[in-house]
Design brief:
HEAT; protein phosphatase regulator activity; repeat; PP4R1 phosphatase; 2% strand; Leucine-rich Repeat Variant; disordered C terminus; two-stranded antiparallel ribbon; 2 strands; mainly alpha; 267 residues; 16 helices; ARM-like
Length: 267
């Protein structure tokens, strides 16, 4: 019954955590018994079972419970097969979604060598716009995962394609992640390539694309600032934040001989 398999998948992560904490007693139980089930359910015929398997896999990866050899020899090959051009449409959409989510929790080497080539192919998928949209929505995360060199060499050309896609939802998704992409590139690429590209989005014929671009304008401009002097930086979750300078912090501390009244504090 699919409901039984789905329930089983939901129990895998807590069992795996227990086995990890009790590893001297169960040194190989997870790798021998549980990991093969997770991998098998990624190709289950029932979509709810597959979804549960994908969620379980991501939790296991986030908890660093999956061995590097299993990632490279078992997990990645399955996802590459599911996202291949001849794969079933539903499987392909699910696989590219998992690939994008995995990128932030895998090592840079694994992402660049095993997943990046397929991601670049999927960005140009002419059959399914859903696949391209997932790629566009997660583009900033992929750039962050592989770093500047691979971003400028392989990803920026694909980003240009997506920014001029015939589907306006694709262009809107690109506008929304523009800051994250810009932050990964060098100042020269930011100035000579991304700035003209951003102008094209802010002048787009679709008002939803223009609106998204205008909302990203400030964050995009912030990537031109020097973090050491401006205090602007990107957190691990991709959001823009401000690190106050020591001078600002000190200036906010009241002197010992000053008493703040409630009215002045409110002011």
């Amino acid at each position: 019954e699919p409901t039984v398999r789905t329930e089983l998948m939901e129990q895998i992560p807590p069992i795996a955590i227990f086995l990890q904490e009790s590893r001297p007693k169960f040194p190989t139980a997870f790798f021998e018994y549980l990991m093969p089930i997770v991998v098998r359910y990624l190709t289950d015929v029932n979509n709810q079972v597959r979804k549960a398997g994908q969620e379980a896999l991501l939790i296991l990866l986030e908890q660093d419970l999956v061995a590097q050899s299993d990632i490279e020899n078992k997990v990645c090959p399955i996802l590459l097969d599911l996202s291949a051009p001849e794969s079933d449409d539903e499987y392909k959409v699910e696989a590219v979604n998992v690939i994008c989510k995995m990128a932030s929790v895998l090592s840079r080497t694994t992402v660049e060598h095993m997943l990046l080539p397929r991601f670049c192919e999927l960005c140009s998928d002419g059959k399914l716009f859903q696949v391209r949209k997932i790629c566009a929505a997660n583009f900033g995360d992929i750039c962050n995962a592989v770093g500047r060199e691979a971003t400028e060499r392989l990803l920026i050309p694909k980003f240009f394609e997506l920014c001029s896609d015939s589907v306006w939802g694709m262009r809107k998704a690109c506008a929304e992640c523009f800051m994250a992409v810009s932050y990964t590139t060098s100042p020269e690429v930011r100035r000579t390539k991304l700035s003209p590209l951003f102008i094209s989005l802010i002048s787009d014929t679709c008002r939803w694309v223009r609106q998204a671009a205008f909302q990203s304008l400030g964050p995009f401009i912030s990537t031109f600032a020097n973090p050491s002097s401006a205090g602007l930086y990107i957190r691990e979750d991709g959001t823009l934040s401000i690190r106050p300078s020591v001078q600002d912090v000190n200036s906010c501390q009241p002197s010992s001989n000053i008493t703040l009244t409630s009215s002045s504090a409110n002011a």
